[in-house]
Automatic annotation (TrEMBL):
Protein's recorded name: FAD-binding monooxygenase
InterPro entries membership: FAD-bd, FAD/NAD-bd_sf, RIFMO-like
Pfam families, A to Z: FAD_binding_3, Rng_hyd_C
GO MF term set: FAD binding; oxidoreductase activity, acting on paired donors, with incorporation or reduction of molecular oxygen, NAD(P)H as one donor, and incorporation of one atom of oxygen
Length: 593
């Protein structure tokens, strides 16, 4: 195999690495992706893709196929809790409660107003082949599986990596300006001395990917995740059941994944016959139903983060930078957001439009968000035990004692009202996981690539559940549909290919002129226009932008290529060119003319 020279080497072929390959390609940056694995994931792994992730997949062109293969919205409107799935008496499988989740299948007006993209559900085992196929189309020959990084050396100008072709057992050199580590922490971190810190052993979990007809018991058509609070096994985390498709969803799903906690003290607990017997007992499957088991895997729930996201010319993203409990669906989506943040910055530096300081803002912006997401995911996981507490369930009690604790729910007893109230309150608290719109969509950045405008710090009404659009620097650009040359398009589509976006009020034409002149004289890709109800470059037909723009008709908002507000002027200024020049110089860590 011949040696390779490329601007960016990506190590790792999972969700983060493949997304990085696609985003760099759409930015015009050549890259090479190498993965030690022979193929994409054979495990179900993560499955919920939030609105921000789907916006990114829309930008790189992969979203239509992801939506086509994913769960239809009518089958992912809720998460629900049950007393097991099936069993020998009528109370097995009874619903304990249900919550609307993920925007209720894109019916929640807050979710519709936040983004043109709805949340999607597609297990990683099915997502990654879609991403790989699309990455290969965008970068033919630039995606190599079964090619393992075995060494790297950095110098002032770049990284020299040694890669082994595992099919031919030959090695070759890859010379790159930068290396993006998206290998799940397997290799690169060890080679450059980056360490992971945090909670390493929160819970031991086991997952079974199987084919089975569960439609007689999994009857709720709109429920995606079934939490089986089985009194026979002590309550929460005795079982979680999620449909896998691939051809049908809801109760008709052909494949399922079953997750359960397992005890580490029993040396025989992981024997296959014990595992399958435990699964059958938890689900209450009749003897005649024999699932086809595709894969049994074990994993440790942890919440850890790298001590650095940058080590010289090496950057860490996804599981190589942070690992989360799955509760809340923040792991894979955070990985996607990582590489989206980093890719436009690499592209700007490689093109000579930005200084190296811009690359330092990757860690400054993403590490606090990723740490917050880890903390949220851990809190979500532990919060499930409040349901056990409300019901009085415990692994220390016998199955008979646990079932007796549930009896007041379904009978008219003196303690019934209090028990139902406690359960309903515990389930309502799970909105911190299933309706955490501000966590997944409203996260904010603070770095030198953001120019403060002196406005008061944002204080959310609910920091978890309520996303409130804002153009304050550091916030994501609010969504709005506008009309451009007679075509109705999301405002966010104007930000693509590494371009900045300058949006001025209807009286802010001088901002547009200044931005276009600045872009032309400095080679900064930029789109500029006024937004208003009448006589503007972009027509705000429904006043959606007006409601959230936060500026006067003479003001302006500058949006970065990753759709984050970089700068805002609330009104007119004496010299808009100088103001914009200084702002963009700070953002790009360079001196513009």
């Amino acid at each position: 195999m011949t040696d390779v020279q490329v601007p960016v080497l990506i190590v790792g072929g999972g969700g983060a690495g493949l997304t990085a390959s696609m985003t760099l390609s759409t930015l015009g940056v050549d890259s090479l992706l190498v993965s030690a694995l022979p193929a994409t994931s054979t495990l179900p792994k993560a499955h919920v893709l939030n609105q921000r992730a789907m916006e990114i997949f829309t930008e790189v062109g992969a979203a239509p196929e992801i939506y086509r293969r994913g769960t239809p919205p009518e089958h992912m409107r809720a998460s629900a809790w049950y007393a097991g799935l099936a069993g020998p008496h009528e109370n097995y499988g009874r619903k304990l409660g249900e919550l609307e989740a993920w925007g209720g299948g894109y019916t929640d007006p807050d979710y519709v107003a936040a983004s043109p993209c709805r949340t999607c559900n597609l297990p990683q085992i099915r997502l990654e082949p879609v991403l790989k196929e699309h990455a290969e189309k965008l970068n033919p020959g630039g995606v190599r599986f079964h090619h393992e990084l075995v060494g790297l050396v950095q110098d002032d100008d770049g990284v020299t990596a040694t890669v082994r072709d595992k099919d031919t057992d030959t090695t070759y050199q890859v010379r790159s300006r930068y290396l993006m580590a998206a290998d799940g922490g397997r290799t690169v971190g060890r080679l450059v001395g980056v360490e992971m810190n945090g909670q390493r052993d929160i819970m031991k979990m086991l997952s079974i990917h199987m084919s089975a007809d569960l439609s007689p018991w999994a009857t709720d058509d709109d429920v995606l995740i079934r939490w089986l609070v089985n009194p026979d096994f002590g309550g929460s985390f005795s079982g979680v059941l999620v449909p896998m498709g691939p051809d049908h969803w809801g109760p008709a799903s052909e494949e399922w994944v079953f997750h359960m906690q397992y005890a580490t003290g029993d040396p025989d607990a992981m024997k296959e016959d014990r595992v399958l017997a435990r699964m059958r007992a938890t689900l209450g499957l009749p003897p005649e139903l024999v699932p086809t088991v595709h894969r049994i895997s074990t994993w440790t729930m942890e919440g850890v983060i790298a001590d650095r996201f940058r080590a010289g010319r090496v950057f860490f993203a996804g599981d190589a930078a942070h690992r989360h409990p799955p509760t809340g669906g923040l792991g894979l989506t955070s990985a996607i957001h990582d590489v989206y943040n980093l890719s436009w910055k690499l592209a700007a530096v490689l093109a000579g439009r930005a200084g190296d300081g811009l690359l330092d803002t990757y860690e400054a912006e993403r590490k606090p968000v990723d740490q917050h997401n880890i903390d949220s995911a851990i809190a979500n996981a532990l919060n499930h035990f409040t349901i056990d507490q409300a019901l009085g369930l415990s692994p220390e009690k016998t199955p008979e004692e646990n079932w007796a604790e549930l009896a007041p729910l379904w009978q008219d007893l003196p303690e019934s009202a209090a028990k139902r109230h406690a359960l309903n309150r515990a389930i309502a608290s799970q909105t911190m996981e299933f309706h955490h719109h501000n966590v997944e969509f409203g996260y904010r950045y603070a770095s030198t690539a953001i120019v403060p405008d002196g406005s008061p710090a944002y204080v959310p009404l609910d920091p978890v559940r309520l996303y409130e659009p804002s153009t304050r620097p550091g916030h994501p650009m609010p969504h709005a549909f506008i009309e451009r040359q007679g075509e109705r398009v999301p405002l966010g589509t104007l930000v693509h290919g590494g371009k900045f976006l300058l949006l001025a009020g209807e009286e802010g034409g001088v901002w547009v002129e200044a931005a276009e002149k600045l872009a032309s004289e400095n080679g900064v890709p930029l789109v500029a226009g006024t937004v208003g109800v009448l006589d503007s470059d972009f027509i705000d037909v429904r006043c959606a932008w007006l409601k959230n723009r936060g500026i006067s008709p003479a003001g302006a908002v500058l949006v970065r290529p990753d759709r984050y507000v970089a700068f805002r002027s609330l009104g007119a200024v004496a010299d808009p060119y100088a103001v914009l020049r200084d702002a963009l110089s700070q953002v790009l860590s360079t001196e513009l003319r």
